[in-house]
Design brief:
The relative contact order is 0.12. The chain has 12 helices and 14 strands. The protein has 2 domains: 125 residues, 3-Layer(aba) Sandwich (Rossmann fold); 195 residues, Rossmann fold, CATH 3.40.50. The protein has 351 residues and is an alpha/beta fold. A 7-stranded parallel sheet has the order 8-9-7-6-12-13-14, sandwiched between helices.
């Protein structure tokens, strides 16, 4: 289903999608209200959703769809204004699976790339089986969490760095984890979130808005890591942790189909930090990050995978669990508090 108020863009999107043999346009509507009325009859596998709509905007539509007719949503944004970026990011938090840049005209040099990106994203997300949330965002589902001693591989000293990797469904999960950390968090946080390149800086700005107690920046080559700062991996470069508490950006090939790659980050942390790092893998399709998390586990680090009961897509955390990479498997609401406890300053004499 295409939800787009501009007739010109509606027909343009219909043309792009109709050319892809993997996809079929089953309905085209101009407003969120029309979409909500037709979804029960049409039952689309995936929705292409514009952000600026007459009446309800894309964020409100996302909230209603996920509450009433859970369906994979791909937000299509022109990425031109701060307000549009904010609505796009909040839509991800409300349950949309991805945000992509609106395709440009046929004569534009970026047309083929953006059109292919849109169709591929729609096809992949159509395979995700989203469900209505059946647990409170504050309490989470009832899943027994292991005691702290069962999670920490070494409590003789405070860990030196935290790495987090997420993909599909990640923005909302990342915000939940980071919002549960104290404002004086004593270590740097390196985040690899798979997101469309044009939206990385908007994602960073949005995180700063919704996480007022933490400073969020885009990672830069050679940056000296500071406690309590969240470093977001930029698009189309790998972000790795180097000895001496520095970040390096590399142009190595994709790994597990991703660039930046979570495995590249975790692998570098295992080599530079050994048991003094902590790795967390959250919701996402595929298996990026799982191998690197396993390498951290073998190096003695504390490693946490999101439990399948809260993961929007259990691909990445599920892969980590199956290969024995996680020293703990926790539902999303328990991860932030567990990290806060793990990074609580302690001395070697602390029991």
């Amino acid at each position: 289903m295409i939800v787009e108020d501009s007739q010109v863009v509606r027909e343009f999107l219909r043309l792009i999608i109709a050319r892809d043999p993997r996809l079929e346009v089953v309905e085209v509507v101009r407003s969120g209200e029309e979409a909500l009325a037709l979804i029960p009859q049409v039952k689309p596998d995936v929705i292409s959703l514009d952000i600026r709509l007459p009446g309800m905007n894309g964020l409100e539509v996302t909230k209603r769809v996920m509450a009433e007719h859970p369906t994979p949503i791909v937000v299509v944004s022109s990425d031109v204004e701060d307000e549009e970026l904010k609505i796009s990011m909040n839509s991800l938090r409300a349950g949309a699976l991805a945000v992509v840049q609106k395709p440009v005209g046929l004569s534009h040099s970026e047309y083929d790339r953006l059109a292919e990106s849109l169709c591929t994203k729609l096809f992949i997300m159509s395979q995700v089986r989203v469900i209505r949330q059946r647990y409170s965002p504050l309490s989470g589902p009832v899943v027994a969490a292991p005691p702290l001693a069962a999670v920490a591989r070494s409590l003789t000293a405070t860990p030196q760095a935290l790495g987090i990797v997420a993909s599909t469904g990640g923005p909302s999960a990342v915000v939940r984890v980071l919002s549960d950390l104290p404002p004086d968090f004593p270590a740097p946080i390196i985040l690899v979130q798979h997101i469309t390149p044009g939206f990385v800086q908007g994602f960073v700005s949005w995180l700063n808005d919704v996480l007022p107690d933490l400073e969020v920046v885009q990672a830069t080559h050679g940056a000296i890591l500071k406690p309590g700062v969240v470093y977001v991996a930029p698009a189309e470069s790998h972000t790795v942790y180097a000895a001496g508490g520095r970040l390096l950006l590399t142009n190595d090939p994709m790994l597990s189909g991703q660039k930046p790659s979570g495995t590249m980050l975790f692998r570098s942390m295992s080599k530079a930090l050994g048991a003094d790092g902590v790795g967390v893998i959250l919701t996402g399709m595929g298996e990026d990050g799982a191998i690197g998390l396993h390498e951290m586990f073998l190096a003695g680090a504390t490693t946490i995978a999101e439990h399948e009961s809260t993961a929007v897509v259990n691909g990445m955390p599920g892969s980590a669990v199956r290969m024995g990479a996680a020293s703990a498997v926790l539902p999303l609401p328990d991860i932030g508090p567990r990290l806060a406890a793990l990074f609580q300053p302690r001395s070697p004499s602390t029991p």
